[in-house]
Amino acid sequence: MIPGVSLELRSRLNPHLRLLAGFGFVANVLLLVSPLYMLQIYDRVLNSGSFDTLLWLSVLAVFLLAVYGAAEMGRRRVSALAAQEIESFFSPKLFQRFEGQLEGRPDLAMNLARLSRVQTFIQNGSLLPYLDLPFTPLFLVVLFLIHPFIGLLGLGGAVLVFGVAFLAEISSRQGSQASQATLGKAGQFAADLERQRSALVSMGLLGRAYQRWQQVRQLGQGLALGASRQDGKFTAISRALRQTLQILVLGGGAALALSQEISPGSIVASSIILARVLGPIDQIVGGWRNSVQTWSGWMALSTATQDIEDRADYTPLPRPAGDVVLDRTAIGVPGGETPLVQAFNFTAKPGDIIALTGGIGTGKTSFLQTIAGAWPAHSGQISLGGRDIQEWPSEDRGRYIGYIPQDVELLPATIAENIARLSGADDQHIIEAAKAAGAHEMILGLPDGYETPVGPGGVNLSAGQKQLVGLARALFGTPALLVLDEPSANLDSASTSNLIKSIKAVSQAGATIFVSTHDRRLIEQSTTVLLLRNGAVLAAPADQYLKLAVGPGNAAPSGGQGVA
Length: 564
Description:
It is built from 20 helices and eleven strands.
């Protein structure tokens, strides 16, 4: 039983493992063809001088080696299929883990890199030497049948090479793991720098950032060099041992032949069979570092997905009404012991526009992420159209929710695909969403219009352009709930006017809108203002808030009511 293999994965891999075992048995048994052929050539053909015997022995050997080639090709093909099966098992679970990973830094990219390493290891045949190891005793038995001394040489050589492999594993494990972790930190640091290029260049931080990256990188490379040095040392020892054993077998065989204890053909046959004994071991030792890293990745994948169950089937629900009910809802960062917003009750009706305001760190973004279903409530319940948003599968629920985060990020796809949420919707619906967001003219001005790719290899959009495309994506599909986090932060006056028109239109269509803002123009359009302050929620009609508040985002109006 392989550690880290669940019952489900085992059942999916069993057909592949049986085929690998069958092909491996045929391939390894037929590896005896060459030594047996040489044995017959030296001991029978050369003594008899029969060309007919030579011909038929050669024909038989070529035929069996053709079968060997087919078996070898078959098991490499099965290895590739097994790698695909592993990918199809792990990849959806990794994305499910990413969806539910609320605490700590998301590790989707790292886990997918681990999965890719495991796939590559299996696809390129690096696993096959391990599957060949169980056949080593077969070749040792043949060596003992040739002569006990030759068998002992082969057994001793196998033990020595195994010992080298064991020492290599002990000496390189910690260094290899430490180097991977450190180099991973350096890579993540560089990725973080990409997102902050403008600030780094403007404030002259790039040189110091490079020095920091170089320190981490050099530490990782030093650890990797140490691990590589250990690998190289043991690989060299293993290969030297193998060559020495070949000499001993040839020399010992010659001595036995001179004593007439074995035939001359047995000398060559013993040398070939010894190579079969040591071949898998030598390959394993040579690729030991890669094997250790792959095994580490496999165990990390198994640990990351052990509690992830397959998505349950669900029945798609019709578009809900826009009623949003917060029942004794407390809001906080996932994993935090103390909520940012204490438990409160609140109800929003279809068409309501709720402006959310408050000071920095009062929990406005956490509030919106919880309302949108991205985070669970710290306690209590939130429902949309009478349905608990946490019990509602996100793929179905998400069709009816539009969300704009503070910093809009677009997927590396075309503008149209981003607006359509990768759904492959009709062009007309995409254009309607873009027009509703006031983004249509801006999109037409791009190099390829709606087919303009964004992200790596595509067009780099400004923050305002991203904001407009993000709004179009949020409005796509006539959402029942629209959640906006500082939507006017990167927009000019004209775009903000379009945003207000869009919000009004969505409200009139029966959607409920929550918008975090300090923009007075948006607050004026709202029906209710929720002020977050000191963990409490104070509610007031928008007109009353604007009359009593000195300015946007200042202290709550004296007439504001705490929400129970």
